[in-house]
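Predict structure. Input: Arylsulfatase E isoform X2, 588 residues.
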Amino acid sequence: MLHLEHSCLFFRSWLALTVSVLLDLKPSACRSLSGSRPNILLLMADDLGIGDVGCYGNDTIRTPNVDRLAADGVMLTQHIAAASVCTPSRAAFLTGRYPLRSGMVSSNGYRVLQWTGVSGGLPPNETTFAKILKDKGYATGLIGKWHLGLNCESSDDYCHHPLSHGFDHFYGMPFSMMGDCEPGEMSEKRAGLEHKLNVCSHVMALAAFTLTAGKLTRLVAGSWTLVICSAIVALLCLTTSYFMGALIVHADCFLMRNHAITEQPMSLQRTTALILKEVSSFVKRNKQGPFLLFVSFLHVHTPLITTENFRGRSPHGLYGDNTEEMDWMVGQILDTLDTEGLTNSTLVYFTSDHGGSLEAQFGNNQYGGWNGIYKGGKGMGGWEGGIRVPGILRWPGVLPAGRLIHEPTSLMDVFPTVVQLGGGQVPHDRVIDGRDLLPLLLGTAQHSEHEFLMHYCESFLHAARWHQRNRGAVWKVHYVTPMFHPDGASACYGRGVCPCFGDKVAHHDPPLLFDLSRDPSEAHALTPDTESSFHQVMERITKAVEDHRRTLSPVPLQLDMPDNIWKPWLQPCCGRFPLCWCDREADP
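Output follows.
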């Protein structure tokens, strides 16, 4: 037995040394690493702030399992999401491309997909890392949140479904967890829709009353048709408003396994257990490997569904409780790898899709995350708090434990990294914005391949960063920033999320300039008087932006109208529409 343990230790050491040597030779050497064919486990939290995790500085929310990942692996301290809201950020993560290239952005304020029953979504001609690894023999699974569309022309064409984008297996929400999935104060669209419908009912009722009075006093001529129509519309608006909460819950808050709806609406208190059971089942079925499993947590998005075991445990209220439960889920998943003997053969990655939501605040309660020292949060296209996220990778025996990397990296980098690890080829027929992380992780490269990164808010460029390697500086310019509300606040309170355009944003000429290497909180904008290289930095970044824009091609914007409005004929329903109800999870 002792001899076997020494043999395993020798093999792991030999593999790590071989990997380092191979990566130090030529760019093609990364492809030689594909022979190792690791399992790949990707863990993504929803709306988690970088300041909510212990290894990133939080000492009041307990995240021992994520912290253990960091201690046993590599931690990225300047890991950047391609967007500050979920739909475009996740599209970029899966494709390795800025979401503007795939059309997964909007230009009219609809920042994410608004309903399950819309025709917008990740276009079929986009290539995900799952699609490439599936072709290379990987078992591919997605468990949890999708939020990248479902159907195009009918309720069962599944053109945007995960199974159409390279995943063999899907279990979870085709849409997203949101405040409206649970009755209460944390509404994201119900309250707004109810207000519009109530206004509609009042206006039409007033019209019907006015027309009726006019008819009875003979001041209005003609038939009663207009009066009747106005009254019917008023009644329809009032009725729809009354049932709006239930309609949203049935339309968006349901679970699917592959193409079949298993629970509509969801029984929220058992969802965590169901997801963990599905993860364990997938790992056990595919433990002979290799497998790619993307676990896309529903935590820590509002309404912060938290089981009784974790309620009241954190000093940060329900949000802290939910974060600690998410960390416990990470631990359960890692324990599954240990139990199945897969820890040393699995690359594990942990991140969040973007920064925490500062505006998720009701009364004296904060239901969104904390972004540490970084300014801004979810929905803010340029400020660091909206886009700087945790980035942790562990692969025992290959990646050095406890390593910190301060270079700029991106969620888009996961695409080329896992593709090349899995023996695939990064597509050459399109622009790929991500860069292979392995040389940086292994220490065979000193600097990130990202010299420039662009920061979009919808289809509008809000900011750009330049990593000036010879000076060790990271410059960031802001062309547009949101106007915080009320004056003196640090977010757009009362607005749900900060806008990307219009009269509630400020355009800067000259742009705001910060040196993130000296001022990561973006507290002190530089000027020609305070920074001698101000004009040179501006000129260099301006040229980089121009070069970047020349690589863009026009594509349909999937989040614009009419692709982002609810269409009844696209609504998934496990009964006869509109009676959408089933609970197949409870069946033996």
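Residues 35-178+256-448+554-583 form a domain with the Alkaline Phosphatase, subunit A fold (CATH 3.40.720.10).
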